Every structure is written in C-alpha cells, then in structure tokens.
Amino acid sequence: MKLNSIFITGALALSCGSLQALETAAPIADKMKPQQSFTELAGIQVWNYQDELLGRIKFVTADLENAQLVEVVIASGGFFGLGGKLTSAPPRALKLDESKQVMRLDVSKARFDAAPVFRTSNVAAYSQAARVAAVSRYYGLQPWFHSDAQGSLKNARIPNLGHVERTDRIMGMQIKSTNGQYLGRVGSLMMDLPTGQIVHVVDETAAMAGNGRYIIQARALRYNAKHSGLVLDKSYASLKQEPRLKWVGDSRQSFQKESTVNRKPRAN
Predict the structure, then answer these.
(1) What domains can you pick out in the chain, each with its CATH number?
(2) pLDDT, tens only, 144-170
(3) Of 13, 106, 196, 250, which one has the greatest count of Cβ atoms within 10 A?
C-alpha cells in the first residue's frame, strides 16, 4: 500500500481524479479508506532530511479521551525492534514525503540516537506527562497539555494528559453505554498524524442486528475503571442516529460517510 493512501485515512482529502468513478453514486459523501492504525502504519520507514534511515514505525500511542495522538514509537536496529532500540517522537514532528513514500523527521542521526529510549515494559510511563512533554521539547515542539514543567500555566482550555494507550490495543475494545449496554467495538481510528489528532472513532456493531459502522467523536468516549473497555453516554437507539460509514463496491477496500442529502435541515 502506498503511504499517501494511509494518510488519506488520517483526514486528508482524496484527489478528485481518484474519486470520479464514485461521484455519481454519492456526490456529496466524504470518501475515506479504512484505517487499521497499527497494521497500516507499522513498518513505515522514517528518514531524516540528510537521507539517513532512522528506523521504522512500530506503533503509535494515543490519549483517546482528549482525541490526541501522543507518540510515534520508532524501532531501529535489530529486527523490527527485537534486540534493537525503541525511540519515540511526537506525531507533529513527522512529515510525509510523498515522492519517497516514507516519513521524514527533522533531526540528525546523532541526535536521534541520543534521544530517550521508549520502554514498553513500563506501561505506566506512557501516561506520565513530564516524560511525554520532555519528548516533545527534545524535538523542538511544545506539548499540547499541562505538565509538571508548566506549573505556572493555568489555561483551562489546555487539557491535562489523560490515560495513554497503544492504538493497536484500542482497536477492538468493547464500547458500552453507561448502564452496561453493549454498543459495539472500536473498528477504526481515523487519525491525522501530521496534526497529532484522532479525527473520529468508528464503532463497529456487526455483532448486533444493526450491522452498522457509526462515527463517534473520540472525546465522547471514556475508559472504564480498568481501562479495558470504553464507555459512551448513549443508548443503542440514540447511537443509530449518528452518521454511518458504508463500504464502497465489493472489494471492501474503501468506505464513505453516509450522505445527509435527504435529511431535514435542523432549525437554528
């Protein structure tokens, strides 16, 4: 798969030419491709601007409740991280090089090699604000959240870092209502890596009679007490009123947002 098609799922628009054959069927629908955040991003090469290979993306972490991507973890040396080193970088520091179909990170090889190591064994550290903020600053970016190092900053519009989880582990998590009703599972995460945001979550309800794929805003979800599943303050009946995604064609290689052309306008 070409890298530019991966970032189409990250809320970047598809070219008009590639959509021409679909416009007749659904002229106003948003076209997207399904996002399998771990399987589609894993293995992509990361190079610096001096054409030195830094490594490959192993996984991405996210603060789902704040709709923010937190770190891109890059494996270098060994075999895809086995026996090698894991280094994290803020998503906003990575740029897509469409001509080479790789990601670019504006850092020298020496500085990248000296970056703090990411330790998968220390799961609690994923959500440590001071550590994550230090990674952002190492690459010349300010964190988007409050951290201990920002003690004097009291802007209520800037959130605290919430629970951070690997996106490949968020995929497939059960979603339930506040009273325990099963609402489906996380089927897709639409991500915009260059801005570091989760655009929305797709709730797969194929196991239920509706067989739907409903669009949910990430900030509408919260983790349960054990961080093993997600909670949505909706019933299944109200979930069915949300926009849906549907497959285009028989190949199941792309889907589109449900058209709203026949819906009645909402009064102001």
Answers:
(1) 3-150 (2.30.30.240), 167-246 (2.30.30.240)
(2) 997 654 444 454 456 899 999 999 899
(3) 196
